[in-house]
Amino acid sequence: MEAVGGEEELGLGFPFWVAACRRFKPGDPFFAAGDIERELIAKHVALDLTEDERYQLQKMEGGGINTVLCPIVGCGAQLNCLEDFEDHYHARHTASCSVCSRVYPTSRLLSIHVSEAHDSFFQAKVARGFPMYECLVEGCGVKLKCYKSRQQHLVDKHKFPRSFEFYRKAHPSKHQRQKYQRRQAAYRWEGTKETHMDVDRNTLKQPRQKYRPKQAGPESEETNMEVEEKIDNLASAVSKLSTSDSTPSSISFGHRHARGFAFVPRSIRQNQKQQSDAKR
Amino acid sequence: MADEGVSPPSQRRDSIKSSVHNTAAQRRRQHAIAVGKERREALIRTKRLCRVAVVDDSEVLLEGDMLVDEEKAVLDSQTSQTVEDLKSALSYHGKGATQKKIEILRALRRLLSKSEVPPVEAALQAGAIPVLVQCLSFGSADEQLLEAAWCLTNIAAGEPEETRSLLPALPLLIAHLGEKSSVSVAEQCAWALGNVAGEGEELRNVLLSQGALLPLARLMLSNKASTTRTAAWALSNLIKGPDPKAATSLIRIDGVLDAIIRHLKKSDDELATEVAWVVVYLSALSETAVSLLVKSDVIHVIQLLAGRLAASESLQLLIPVLRSLGNLVAGDSYITDAVLIVGHDITDQVLSGLVKCLKSEHRVLKKEAAWVLSNIAAGSFEHKELIFSSEATPLLMHLLLSAPFDIRKEVAYVLGNLCVAPAKGAGQPSIILRHLVTLVNHGCLPGFINLVRSADIESAKLGLQFLELVLRGMPNGEGPKLVEREDGIDAMERFQFHENEEMRNMANGLVDKYFGEDYGVDE
Lengths: 280, 523
Fold this sequence. Notes:
Chain A: Residues 97-118 form the C2H2-type domain. Chain A: Residues 200-224 are annotated as: Disordered. The complex is a heterodimer of chains A (280) and B (523). With 280 residues, chain A is mostly helical. Chain A contains 11 helices and 6 strands. In chain A, a hairpin with a 6-residue loop joins strand 3 (95-96) and strand 4 (103-104). Chain A is elongated, with a radius of gyration of 26 Å. In chain B, helix 17 (298-311) runs parallel beside helix 20 (345-359), helix 21 (363-376) packs parallel to helix 24 and helix 27 packs across helix 28 (478-485). Classes of the chains: A mainly alpha (280), B mainly alpha (523).
């Protein structure tokens, strides 16, 4: 019942829903429950089973067929049934960030996120040229100098899709989108601004950006904070890079508990506060 | 138990007592667990222990209670002894030899049919098979044949190796199916052979090569209900494949199709059940069977099946009847196209039978009925309209949101099939907007998004495919908003670290296309 056409539209060969007849062979696991029921009834025991026995039998149903293989990359856990899988997933694959509440499926990924998003020491080392961006695939061990090259590595070496994004661009609520669009209009009205980095402009064009590295202000402003600011700009801007040239991917990661929550690295938030203080 | 300590000596005694007690209790518990596990496995096996005589007027009914707690060792030694006795009896050819043999056989049979887990291993180790084979020799007294076949039946009902041990006995068992045999003997042999066939493909092939099919089929034409029933059951084990040859041969045998129709029409639930299972395997396996049915009398068969579906309340009958219908619908498009014509009585009958199953409390019925509906919903536009406007739709919606996973998956297939027009060549199949909009407005979206979250790839794929329909098809570009509102984006994002590349691409593709840069810009 698989894909017929559709290449034109989504360009990825999306297998559209096709209504097709499905046939099963007699031994198919699909029929297992019915087969077991048949045997239980024939042996006149259906009524004699305790709740527990029934549950055990349902678990035994088809034996290995009900086994769920955890699909998270690198896990390989085998669970007996879907309930067990849900338990396993919640126990082993959800870890949340204490700073921004984002959820990640492994503690390793969580710690990578914390380093890259909330650790100013990490950013400092990046700014000084150390390869800090770890490959996301456990066991690879490669470290790259910037987010973009790590993305490239994932695509090249690990066959990740180009549209993959580790960094979440949170999907703003309608209110936030409108706010941004108003700001966007006001910003444009004030005239074009030279920014320190091209990257800034690119990020500004992305409608979901909620933080701009600079408030509106005179070009020539040079403060002590600017050095830090540059580093922070680099960090935040690079973090918003996308590898796909056309439409940026908006995939973010994990169950989002902080919906509509603006993701702003703490270091940048602090800086912003200082800047707005300075402006007064 | 252990903490009664009063004075040292009695305390010591108590602790010894309790430790012994504990050991014994532990042993019993372990035995219970082992029996529990064996019992569970025995329960779901396609082999059946014979505990009651097949002879109608027998006075030898179930005597006493099941020996549940009987010490295994005692049972085993009794069994070994009985086999030894039988060996001696066989070498004695004098007066009353036959009676002696029959008595011992009866004792062995009782040992093998009373307890929870019969002492099969002990019997085999004592050399039961060769003696039992001897007892089956041509010309033996009916009662001897009966008891011997009964012993073999129960030996074959256990573990695979135990079933396999019957190999030397097979030709004789098959032979005694013959039309000159006493009906009870034939029936008991059929039972034994049914257990052998239930073991696996290898043994099935042996039986088929040895010519078991024809005599069993003839037995199914018998007038005696229990014989017909046992024969049908044995046949269902014999033809279940995966090789379709046996099923194809069976349908070709003279009188078989007529007998099937006759029994589906008139017989009591128990007999109709076993015959329906034969139809299940015929319809699932054999193209020939299906096309033979189509050419001859398929409307009649479907009417009978639909009738049983509507009239019966017996789960054991409903399961194979429903499945036969399902196999027929899935097996040949002729059924949906030319038999289940919209507007004809037969179609309404089938549909109402399926709705009845959807309403049932039984999981199997709900799931397989949804499967059948999904295949009918894969038919013509008229079929989709018929199902959509029937009682089925609200039932399906409810099941989508509340039923166990395997049912929800099948329901998803139905609902999705209802929303998509019959495919015409390559390219995007067009959406039946009225159906899609109605279903979405009635709240089906959370159900599909839930499927996207499931661990089962096929279901997740279904969910994503339905989301694509919603995103593409909902008017006024409402799709993305609706999906977002139900946390659909969340669900799709779960695939970021999924190991399956197709799923990653599907999810990413949808998010890129519908929640990309331009999302929400033109508000």
